Amino acid sequence: MTEWLAGNRIRGTNTERASASVAQATPTKIIDGSYTVLTYTADGKFIPKNAFNVEYLVVGGGGSGGSANDTSNSEGAGGGGSGGYRTATGHSVTAQAYSITVGAGGAATTAVLQDGNNGNSSIFDTITSTGGGAGGKGTNGAGASGGSGGGSGSGTSAVAGGSSTAYGNNGGAGTNVAKSGGGGGSGAVGQDGVSAASATGGFGGVGTSSSITGSAVTRGSGGGGGGYTTGGLGGTGGGGNGGSGGNGNSGTANTGSGGGGASRASGTISGTGGSGIVILRFLTSAGIFHPSTSQVGSRFEETDTRKIYHLDDLDFKEENDGNIPNFRSASWYEQLSGETP
Fold first, then answer.
1. Which of 37, 166, 181, 203 is the most buried (most CB within 10 A)?
2. How many CB atoms lie within 10 A of CB 222?
3. Please, what is the Cα angle at 130 between 124 and 135, to 5 degrees?
4. Rounded to the nearest 5°, which phi and psi values hold at 320?
5. Confidence band of 229 (pLDDT split at 50, 70, 90)
6. In Å, what is the CA distance from 33 to each residue of 29, 51, 213, 285?
7. Rounded Cα distance, 279 and 224, in Å
């Protein structure tokens, strides 16, 4: 690495000064006005080169639905619950490597009368979003607990849906023959199985909208329960529909949404849970890093922005003896318009 001696003039671009360095199975990077947005759809790393704050969205993988069989009381299986949904601003990061884990969705069932599978957790730093709960099988299969709970399968009596462990909602109940519950969503509980007259699976709970990428996207919804006559719809935001006398439908990838439950004799395969996602957003200027091997007294000129930075706290003098506040970074200070060192 080049060492710049005191008094030397360094020239380079804003990119060469570097924003926060990242490595992954590379995240998608976009610029939204003054912000940089990194979207991780696979495990990776986030490596800031200095301290600043980030906004995050961390969604766990959705649970898969259960399967059923065309025998008495087992016609409909519950929908999978959404992964936990966590988002906040002002999360502090420092110059170190942060591992990113993107939770896989729960695997589909492959045989009759099986409970689904829970989704896997997504992790960024100290933030963990638990995977969604599995949908219960037909014949009184109870929905599993998770970020959001899975819906319960149909049966001889009502079976409560799985509960939310954190950052989600409970799954819907299976309510007698042919009526399974929908999986819970990040924005609402899963619906209980609908009346015997319609024999419809419960709808999955709706997801939650976020504009962290610059445009509104809804994620983290529950899968619909399988129904003897009609499968319940997956919740808005990627939840898989429940099967209507057949297999369930899968949750949408990278939304953390639950898969749909299956129903009746041909409903041996449930919907897979949608994989999770991790998104980070920060002010591009906050992530700026200047050459670390420069000596005090060096000056850095950005050839693309024409900005000038000085290493060390120089006594800048403004034009006309003004006292304009100079908001400076940790060690490199921008020379504002009209200032001379």
1. 181
2. 56
3. 150
4. 60, 30
5. confident
6. 13, 21, 11, 11
7. 26
Name the band, by pLDDT with cuts 50, 70 and 90, for residue 17.
very low
Query: What's residue 296's pLDDT?
Result: 60
Whether 305 and 199 share a structural domain:
no
- DSSP H/E element including 2: none
150 and 35 in a common domain: yes
pLDDT surpasses 50 at 258: yes
265 and 314 assigned to the same domain? no
136 and 201 share a domain?
yes
Three-state SS annotation for 210-278: ECCCCCCEEECCCCCCCECCECCCCCCCCCCCCCECCCCCCCCCCCCCCCCCCECCCCCCCCCCCCCEE
Q: Are residues 262 and 298 in the same domain?
A: no
State how many domains the chain has: 2
Q: At 56, is the pLDDT very low, low, confident or very high (cuts 50, 70, 90)?
A: very high
Domain that holds residue 117: 19-287
More confident residue, 285 or 333: 285
DSSP output for 174-218: B-STTBPPPPP-SSSPPPPPPPTTTTBPPPPPP-EEE-TTSS-EE
Give the pLDDT confidence score for residue 167 in this predicted structure. Answer: 96
* CA-closest candidate to residue 130, choices 84, 65, 162: 84
Is residue 310 domain-shared with residue 164, that is, in the same domain? no
DSSP 8-state assignment for residue 323: -
Burial of 91 (0-12, 13-18, 19+ CB in 10 A): middle
Pairwise CA distance, residues 209 & 185, whole Å: 12
167 and 307 part of one domain: no
Share of the chain above pLDDT 70, in %: 73
Which residue among 262, 287, 312 closes a domain?
Answer: 287
Domain boundary among 287, 307, 323: 287
- The residue-averaged pLDDT of 187-201 equals 83
